Amino acid sequence: MSFPRPGWTVLTCLVCERTFPIHNSEVRKGRKYCSRSCWRKRPIKRNPRPRTITANGYVSVYAPDHPTADRQGRVLEHRLVWERAHGLLPEDWDVHHKDGDKTNNALENLEAMPKSEHTSLHVADRRYTRQELIDNLREVAAKNGGRISHKAFKRLSPITHTPYFRVWGTWKKAVFEILGKEAYYKKSPAKPKYTRNQLVKHLRDLTRTLGRAPTIDEMNNSGFCSYQPYAREWGSWSEAKRVILGEDSVYKAGRKRVS
């Protein structure tokens, strides 16, 4: 196949510098790369900020020439400060902040150590006493109405479940011992269940008040229940109205009066 054919042209990829055929419609869209892989490797032009704070709380600086710079050309400042004084950091080593302040990158506050040792050091710092765990669980339960579940604890607590597993063995044992059995539940409290007679009576009363069969929105705003218990009991909202109110209550427009 010879190129260029009518409607086609040949371009040179800006990343791998290989030529590739491309339709003129793609050229008009601005395509400049031969594949998605080359597109991902494209140089990104940005106006980098000199210093930023990462999501983990560390200071990041723009240093695109550093061997460990990321795709945006950024390096953690504490690593850069240590390496300027001592040379490149060995592989599988980290730089530790002695005072625990991630933004204090003074050289005297930095210490290099193997990653395994650094991880162990921070895990030890995160250990809580038994009383701290008890107080935390009680505070979280108070925020949740005096009861607690695994999901609610995860949402409200600044401490994870791991320390409770380590001290009490299981999450359930921790809750039973600290708060009691009545405070524990696996899921959200179940929605109230309605009997068939209650549903029939409520629908007939609402129909009598409106002078016609209610719509779904009117049932949802009735203050007793939504249309969903009717759909579960009779298979659908329309079928519930047909059985309880009769055939004349089922209509397409939704505003026919019930005699």
Features:
single chain; 259 residues; alpha+beta; Homing Intron 3 (I-Ppo) Encoded Endonuclease, Chain A; 4 domains; three-stranded antiparallel sheet; two-stranded antiparallel ribbon; 12 helices; 7 strands; disordered C terminus
Tell me what the structure shows:
This protein is an alpha+beta fold and 259 residues long. It folds into 4 domains: 8-40, no CATH class; 51-125, Homing Intron 3 (I-Ppo) Encoded Endonuclease, Chain A (Alpha-Beta Complex), CATH 3.90.75.20; 130-183, no CATH class; 196-249, no CATH class. The protein contains 12 helices and 7 strands. The chain has helices spanning 24-28, 36-40, 77-86, 115-125, 130-143, 150-156, 162-168, 171-178, 196-210, 216-220, 228-234, 237-245, and strands spanning 8-12, 19-23, 51-53, 59-62, 74-76, 93-97, 110-114. A 3-stranded antiparallel beta sheet has the order 3-4-5. The protein has a two-stranded antiparallel ribbon with strand order 1-2. A hairpin with a 6-residue loop joins strand 1 and strand 2. Helix 11 (228-234) crosses helix 12 (237-245). Residues 252-259 have low confidence and may be disordered.
